[in-house]
């Protein structure tokens, strides 16, 4: 098994296996896929190894966004406060909704299937959720699961958090589950990008199992572990982190200098990771443009200059190539 596969925590995966969303035949096929790679549930749990989401693509070759969404929502119904490995202790001991949702910053420690980004303004906290599997349907499964599982955890910890909402960037599934109507009221579709939104007046709502000391100790350990993980990150991930600081201005020469390698070595090592400098830069530019457009604090022309484009026209052409929408259409599409 490739340990670099985008996956989910082992406890989460075992709960997925036990979910009513999977029939007996699907469970059998999933275990056959695992067996072919020399893996079983006990091994995953013993070594705390993430389970690759690509297994679901092997079991469901025709998996589409509609089915992936329904699977993600059904899987989330199985989630427990103790499902999330290293994040479980701070999750249970958090003192407020703010402390709970900020644990998403440490998501890379238990799952590489999503990349969260945070934006705070006068309206509250927005967490953009970007799938990283390279498979649109699996990305939708990861977002639907993670977002709705967090809403479920907040219900357990706060006694209901109806103003916290999950917005997904695709149409609602044709057959929507009525198992949890209270949760369904907080799910929205056809958003410009996928995100969780926590209103400002909800951030300080108190959790029922608050333990400040346990939370602080857990966060200290999470920070240390995350720094270690970043130090061992793939070469392309290190390049991406450098580009994210200012994607419009960071050249390949600058990045190579920061990493103490030549530009030819930079190119070769990115190729070994299956990507290129241009692909990473374009991805960072796209993500930065989307976030800046959705915050509404800058005009499209200002964003174009911020990202290194000579004028709005060039930026608009690039943005439409990335998203299929003009910057203004994208901005107005947000729910």
Compact overview of the structure:
The chain has helices at residues 10-17, 24-36, 41-47, 54-59, 65-76, 88-93, 97-101, 136-158, 181-184, 212-231, 235-244, 252-258, 263-272, 277-295, 300-306, 312-323, 327-332; strands spanning 7-8, 51-52, 114-121, 124-131, 165-167, 187-188, 195-199. The protein has 335 residues and is of the alpha+beta class. The strands form 2 sheets. The chain has a 5-stranded mixed sheet. The protein has a two-stranded antiparallel sheet with strand order 1-2.
The run of helices and strands is EHHHEHHHHEEHEHEEHHHHHHHH
**What's the multimeric state?**
single chain
Structural class: alpha+beta
Task: Report the average pLDDT across residues.
Answer: 88
Radius of gyration: 20 Å
Task: Determine the fraction of residues in helical runs and give it as a percent range.
Answer: 40-55%
Biggest β-sheet, characterized? Answer: 5 strands, mixed
- Strands in their spatial order, largest beta sheet: 3-4-7-5-6
Secondary structure: number of strands: 7
Q: How many separate domains make up the residues?
A: 2
Q: Catalogue the unreliable spans.
A: none
Anisotropy-based shape: globular
Number of contiguous helices: 17
């Amino acid at each position: 098994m490739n340990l670099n596969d985008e996956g989910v925590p082992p406890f989460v995966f075992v709960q997925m296996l036990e979910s009513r969303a999977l029939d007996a035949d699907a469970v059998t096929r999933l275990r056959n896929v695992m067996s072919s790679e020399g893996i079983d549930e006990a091994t995953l749990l013993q070594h705390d190894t993430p389970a690759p989401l690509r297994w679901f693509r092997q079991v469901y070759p025709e998996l589409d966004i509609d089915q992936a969404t329904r699977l993600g929502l059904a899987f989330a119904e199985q989630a427990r406060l103790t499902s999330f490995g290293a994040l479980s202790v701070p999750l249970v001991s958090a003192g407020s909704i703010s402390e709970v949702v900020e644990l998403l910053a440490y998501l890379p420690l238990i799952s590489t299937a999503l990349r969260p980004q945070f934006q705070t303004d006068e309206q509250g906290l927005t967490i953009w959720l970007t799938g990283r599997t390279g498979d649109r349907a699996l990305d939708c499964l990861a977002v639907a699961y993670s977002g709705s599982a967090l809403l479920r955890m907040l219900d357990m910890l706060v006694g209901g958090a109806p103003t916290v909402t999950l917005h997904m960037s695709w149409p609602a599934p044709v057959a929507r589950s009525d198992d949890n109507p209270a949760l369904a009221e907080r799910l929205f579709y056809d958003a410009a990008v996928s995100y969780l939104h926590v209103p400002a007046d909800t951030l300080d709502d108190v959790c029922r199992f608050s333990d400040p000391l346990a939370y602080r100790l857990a966060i200290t350990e999470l920070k240390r572990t995350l720094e270690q993980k970043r130090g061992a990150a793939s070469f392309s991930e290190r390049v991406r982190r450098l580009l994210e600081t200012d994607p419009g201005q960071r050249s390949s020469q600058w990045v190579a200098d920061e990493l103490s390698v030549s530009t030819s070595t930079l190119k070769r090592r990115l190729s070994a990771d299956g990507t290129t400098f241009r692909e990473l830069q374009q991805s960072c530019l796209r993500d930065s443009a989307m976030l800046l457009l959705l915050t509404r604090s800058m005009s499209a022309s200002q964003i174009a200059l911020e990202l290194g484009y000579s004028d709005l026209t060039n930026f608009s052409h690039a943005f439409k190539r990335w998203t299929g929408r003009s910057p203004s259409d994208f901005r107005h599409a947000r729910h």
